[in-house]
Design brief:
mainly alpha, 5 helices, 2 strands, Arp2/3 complex 21 kDa subunit ARPC3
Amino acid sequence: MRLGATRRLVLMALLVALGTAVSQLNFPVAGARAYPIQATVDVLAGVMLGPGGAVLVAIVISALRNALGLGTLLAFPGSIFGAALAGWFYRLSGADALAAGGEVLGTGVVGAMVAFPAAALLMGRPAALFTYILPFTLSSGAGALLGYVLLKALRATRGLPNDVRRIKNP
């Protein structure tokens, strides 16, 4: 299966719309807001679009959430690294579980540590280097699990081929 440029763009737009519309479903965790649907979208985009497409989707969702007052600057590091690692882990392994694990590692650890200077310098929030690891990991873990379940459901209904690594840019 080869995904053409128009279909790829439509898929990206649908994932951005989903991630933005459902971002109102969030909850506080240890001084941060948890947005598990962002992690779900990161896993789906990482598998279906690869790391580059997933990162682009994450950036657009984060920008829209900030523009609409639905998120903070922490949305950027919290989603970009998770989307990138979900895409890379899937590209290297072809395993949905590793894509979900890449999301948790990218958002929960890397993104959380990158969020520290953003919170301290740009947002004026006092924070330590490891402040956001727990809330980011809990949020991304829940969302990555949902993304994994959705991928399995899509594959079971033949809505997604078993090896989507064949879906490439035209």
